[in-house]
Design goal:
Strand content of chain B: 5-15%
Helix content of chain A: 25-40%
Largest sheet of chain A: 5 strands, parallel
Distance between the termini of chain A: 28 Å
Helix content of chain B: over 70%
Strand order of the largest sheet of chain B: 2-4-5-7-6
CATH topology of the domain at 421-574 in chain B: Heat Shock Protein 90
Shape of chain A: elongated
Largest interface: A-B, 15 and 14 residues
Low-confidence stretches of chain B: 1-27, 530-537
Radius of gyration of chain B: 69 Å
Number of strands of chain A: 16
Number of helices of chain A: 7
Oligomer: heterodimer
Mean pLDDT of chain B: 80
CATH topology of the largest domain in chain A: Rossmann fold
Strand order of the largest sheet of chain A: 2-1-3-4-5
Radius of gyration of chain A: 21 Å
Largest sheet of chain B: 5 strands, mixed
CATH superfamily of the largest domain in chain A: Response regulator
Number of strands of chain B: 7
Order of helices and strands of chain B: HHHHHHHHHHHHHHEHEEHEEHHEE
Strand content of chain A: 25-35%
């Protein structure tokens, strides 16, 4: 499991400090800090692994935060979720901020709980998978690269290519990775729908394997040897997929 | 001789009158009836029909005008032409234009239905224009003809006699007059008899046969007494006067002359009366006309007056409308002004109230903090860390309270000026409660209060996030303030009527009496002031802010409380439609 990379755009040192502290205490990784529009844009374009951006609307005297949001909305660059921080609930400013389609906003002062909840909500909104992580501590957001999962109050990230296989047990899924295993609350059909079928293949009623993590297949025994020494049995129904995969390989 | 000639002129005129009366009284209706019957077959001719109707109605002028077209027209038959000339001639005769009349009568053909009558008229015209020979010619033709046309043989004989008399052929005159006299006597036609006697008298008088003449005059005079005609009476009296004068019987002559004068006067009187009547009639007509004119003028005046009144009324009405319009506008603006005044007053009171809150509550907390900080420094110098810790805890509580107060003030101001962003969205109430409560967890722990958020995660309501947080924060703040150690605070939701969801913040704290409860629900910012619990900071502003914000969220606010047992604050919000 990886930490979530957060870009913090905030000019007030005290508030920035408090924000960073809260995030770090909750196992977020601060991948960059900017106190103005230019610096923020530079970090945004250089850092490839940003998961979410927190933007203060007022940078200095002007609402440069909104300008930043407007700019990244215009860019031909993989979009990242962002949320606004503001100490003002001025109507005009809010309307302008809203026009940039932020994935969430927070009114200062906010407490730890609100911040974490808002981050989760922003992710849900951005990936259009509502009520997956913010509401329950076993939920997950499935993206083309990774799974975002709720671990306690904070978010964690699991890269998809670290997953060896997924075992379904009722409403829950056991995710087995190279670094460990965990349980998420997600239905099998949804998982299959969201995962790339070229990488993940269903081998039986309960098992989905990462096709790239297959070490060896024993067709006679209906057995697949996975990376890390895991053994997975496959049913005849899904044999064809395995065969196809082998041929392709 | 001169005198007698003079008298004969009188008789001549008398004769014409006789004749005219005769034709008017008797022969006309009969003749008209005959003419109508005999000409019935020509009725299809428009020209004829019109002429005849004028003729029958004796409208002589109309006939003359109408038949003047006769020459220009080519009448369809000689009969119609003859009738035309006849009507025209008759008309001229009646108007006294003798030569024109004679002309017309000459144009009539011999085959005309009423040819004999035409001849008679010609004879009469000749007689009247003193062409006695010609007249005799005409009358001679008629002498032996059968007379069924409504004129009398006696008249013709009389006229013949008259002609001969004028020609001084006394013998013949005597013969015809005697004949006619005989006929008149047979018919007992007194009027005609007077004329006949008078003429016979003058016949003999002209021949100086006074002895024969005088009895005739006498008879004429006697008969005239029984006649109504003043002219006859006058002429008879005059004749007698002349005769007596010539006989040198001057006394009798004078008597007759007097009678003559009397009759003349009567005649004049009659004429005068008639003239007077005519004049009166004219005068009456003029009077009537005047009256009519006056009435007309009056009418016009009335109409004018009525119009004037009408215009005035319309004008006044319009004026009234305009006035009432402006009056209403004025009243409206006055109302608006007074409303605005009230509003301003309310706002002013609110502002004063807020100032007093700021100046009192905030000042006192800051002042306490200031003093506390001095103490803190002293403690630090004395290295009394326990004391420092206690003071810091106290200070942070003070600052927290002051901050909340400030925040409420700010939010109140924003709410009043409507500058705050406000967006009603679907909210998960559990998280809202959780996030608000998070800030109070240390305080709750310190006061040893049991807190529970029992709102299910699935419950959602429609509200503006920030204002809901302010509402919940203030209510929770109050609940904590009025709770003591070991009290418990529970937050949960209830389904309510009409798609509403109730958020209940229930505490087992101090509670309040009914009066306070009602005052809190009723009160406005400007009126909430008194403090029941002196050791508890509170201005009432928080709750009033809650009420306003709940209202803005289309929600309702309820308080259930019992003194000493606790309070339930209920916020009722619209449920999100699932």
């Amino acid at each position: 499991m990886e930490k979530i990379n957060v870009l913090v755009v905030e000019d007030n040192p005290l508030e920035r400090e408090a924000l960073v502290e809260v995030l770090e205490n909750n196992n977020y990784n601060i991948t960059g800090i900017a106190d103005n529009f230019k610096a923020a844009l530079a970090i945004y374009l250089n850092q490839k692994d940003i998961d979410i951006v927190i933007i203060d609307i007022f940078l200095g005297e002007h609402p440069e935060g909104i300008l930043f949001a407007e700019t990244i909305n215009q860019l031909e660059y993989p979009k990242k979720p962002f949320l606004f921080l503001t100490s003002s609930i001025d109507k005009e400013l809010f309307e302008r901020a809203k026009a940039t389609m932020p994935f969430n906003y927070m009114v200062k002062p906010f407490n730890e709980l609100e911040l974490l909840f808002s981050l989760g909500k922003a992710m849900e909104t951005f990936y259009n998978q509502n009520e997956t992580i913010a509401d329950n501590d076993k939920g997950a957001i499935v993206t083309p690269d990774c799974l975002y999962i709720q671990k306690g109050n904070s978010l964690k990230k699991v890269l998809l290519d670290q997953i060896i296989f997924i075992q379904v047990e009722g409403r829950y899924c056991n995710i087995i990775t190279e670094k460990g295993k965990f349980v998420i609350l997600i239905s099998l059909t949804k998982v299959i729908e969201l995962l790339d079928s070229k990488i993940f293949g269903r081998v039986s009623r309960n098992f989905i394997v990462n096709l790239q993590k297959i070490e060896e297949i024993f067709p006679n025994d209906n057995l697949i040897m996975m990376l890390g020494g895991y053994k997975v049995t496959f049913s005849d129904k899904y044999k064809s997929i395995i065969k196809k995969h082998i041929i392709l390989k | 001789m001169l005198i007698s000639k003079c008298s004969s002129i009188f008789f001549f005129s008398l004769c014409i009158i006789c004749y005219a009366q005769n034709s008017k009284k008797q022969s006309k209706p009969y003749f008209f009836k005959t003419l109508k019957e005999k000409s019935q077959h020509l009725i299809n001719d428009d020209f004829f029909d019109k002429s005849r109707s004028f003729f029958l109605n004796q409208e002589w002028d109309s006939i003359l005008v109408h038949t003047s077209l006769l020459e220009q027209k080519v009448p369809e038959s000689t009969e119609v032409k003859d009738y035309g000339h006849f009507f025209r001639g008759y008309g001229f005769l009646k108007k006294g234009l003798l030569s024109e009349s004679e002309n017309e009568f000459y144009k009539i053909s011999k085959d005309f239905e009423f040819a004999l009558r035409v001849i008679m008229y010609q004879g009469e015209i000749n007689l009247m224009s003193s062409k006695y020979e010609k007249a005799i010619e005409k009358f001679k033709i008629l002498e032996d003809k059968p007379l069924d046309l409504g004129f009398k043989r006696s008249n013709i004989l009389f006229n013949l006699g008259l002609c001969y008399l004028h020609l001084k052929k006394f013998k013949r005159a005597n013969k015809y007059l005697k004949k006619s006299l005989k006929l008149y006597e047979e018919k007992k036609d007194t009027t005609e008899l007077v004329g006949a006697y008078a003429y016979l008298g003058s016949l003999y008088y002209e021949q100086y046969k006074d002895d024969i003449a005088i009895p005739y005059f006498q008879r004429a005079y006697d008969l005239a007494k029984n006649v109504d005609d003043f002219t006859l009476k006058r002429d008879a009296a005059k004749n007698m006067a002349i005769v007596e004068e010539n006989r040198k019987d001057l006394v009798a002559a004078l008597l007759y002359r007097k009678e003559y004068e009397q009759w003349k006067d009567s005649l004049n009187d009659q004429n005068k009366i008639w003239q007077t009547a005519q004049f009166e009639k004219k005068f009456a007509i003029a009077q009537k006309e005047k009256e009519v004119n006056v009435l007309k003028a009056e009418n016009r005046a009335q109409v004018a007056e009525r119009n004037t009144i009408l215009y005035a009324a319309i004008g006044l009405f319009l004026l009234l409308i305009v006035i009432s319009f402006f009056y209403r506008k004025n009243i409206k603006s006055k109302k608006t002004i007074s409303l605005q005044n009230e509003k301003l007053d309310a706002l002013n009171t609110t502002k004063d109230r807020l100032f007093s809150i700021v100046s009192h509550d905030l000042r006192s907390s800051v002042n306490t903090l200031k003093l506390s900080n001095k103490k803190l420094l002293a403690n630090l110098e004395a290295e009394n860390f326990d004391g420092v810790h206690q003071l810091l805890l106290k200070n942070s509580a003070l600052v927290g309270g002051a901050y909340n107060l400030l925040d409420n003030l700010l939010n109140w101001a924003l709410l009043q000026t409507k500058q705050a962003y406000f967006e009603i969205k679907e909210l998960q109430l559990f998280f809202a409660v959780e996030h608000v409560a998070f800030n109070y967890l240390p305080l709750i722990k310190e006061k040893e209060i049991h807190f529970e958020n029992k709102v299910p995660k699935s419950v959602k309501a429609l509200a503006d996030k920030e204002s809901l947080k302010i509402i919940l924060r203030n209510i929770l703040d109050n609940a904590i303030k009025f709770s003591e150690s070991n009290d418990s605070i529970k937050i949960y939701t209830q389904e309510a009527k009409e798609d509403r969801i109730n958020i209940v913040i229930e505490d087992t704290g101090l509670g309040m009496d009914e009066e306070t409860r009602l005052r809190l629900l009723r009160a406005k910012v400007s009126t909430v002031n008194e403090r029941k619990h002196k050791n508890i900071i509170g201005s009432g502003l928080g709750l009033q802010l809650c009420k306003s914000m709940i209202q803005k969220n289309k929600g309702e606010f309820l308080i259930e409380s019992e003194l000493g047992r606790g309070t339930k604050m209920i916020v009722s919000l619209p449920k999100s439609p699932d």
